[in-house]
Amino acid sequence: MFDQVSGLPVHVLVIHAVVVLVPLVVLTALAYAVVPRWRWLLRWPLLAGSAGCLAAGFVAKKSGEAFFDRLNEPEFVAEHAARGSLLVWFLLAFFVVSAAAAFMLGGPTPLLGGRERAGAARPVQLVVAALLVVVAVGTGVQVVRTGDAGARATWSSAPAGGVTGVPDADAPLA
Fold first, then answer.
1. Are 87 and 43 in contact (CB under 8 A)?
2. Cβ(52)–Cβ(45) below 8 Å
3. Backbone angles phi, psi at 47, to 5 degrees
4. Distance of alpha carbon 172 from alpha carbon 61, whole angstroms
5. pLDDT by residue (tens digit) across 131-143?
6. CA gap 71, 160 in Å, rounded
7. How many CA atoms lie within 13 A of 21 on its CB side?
8. 3-class SS at 41?
């Protein structure tokens, strides 16, 4: 299931969703945490986005395992695999904290007839907002670290021809 789609490795396809979606949702979380007047607009995108990040991260992890089992060269990706496994835990924490923040942080709404959403007690809101910032930044950093390790595994440590089948730059033209 996580191996191939139409002959293409699922991992190579789904990592692009992770690389694009996670930074966007991290920025959404940061805005949600520090700009109370935007919370009415960002609440549901934050929830849906963090759930989508978790799903994409899980599929990336499972498809990565299937992809590198197929290659029979897992030593190239030990660091990338470890960081990818850790990333799934970061994404789970990010989803949980985002869900808590979505329901605990209050703020005004500009909608016609809208009232300010009270949320939890003010000290609790400050703690949840700070926690959301910390977890969001940590998740963003972990995505970069994981992607960097994957790129290094693909382009630096691979034998001539690379993991993806790209010819060696120093090889003579046929």
1. no
2. no
3. -65, -50
4. 36
5. 999 999 999 999 9
6. 14
7. 20
8. helix
Q: Which two tokens stand for residue 149?
A: 């390790």
Helices 10-34 and 122-155: angle between axes, nearest 10 degrees: 150
Please report, as a single letter, which amino acid is at residue 125: Q
CA distances, 120 to each of 83, 100, 124, 173 (Å): 35, 10, 6, 66
Spatial distance between the Cα atoms of 160 and 29, rounded to a whole number of angstroms:
42
Instruction: Give me the count of residues in the chain.
Output: 174
Torsion angle defined by CA atoms of residues 95, 32, 131 and 54, in that order, rounded to the nearest 10 degrees: 10
pLDDT digits (tens, 9 = 90+) for 51-96: 999 999 999 999 888 888 777 766 667 888 899 999 999 999 999 9
- pTM strictly above 0.85: no
Give the C-alpha separation, 168 to 154, whole Å: 12
C-alpha to C-alpha distances, 159 to 8, 66, 71, 142, nearest whole angstrom: 21, 20, 12, 26
Structure tokens at 76: 């190239």
Q: Which residue has 């500009």 as its token pair? A: 110
Yes or no: say if 101 and 32 are a contact pair by the CB < 8 Å rule.
yes
Helices 78-104 & 10-34 angle (0-180, nearest 10): 40
* Best CA proximity match to 132, nearest among 6, 46, 61: 46
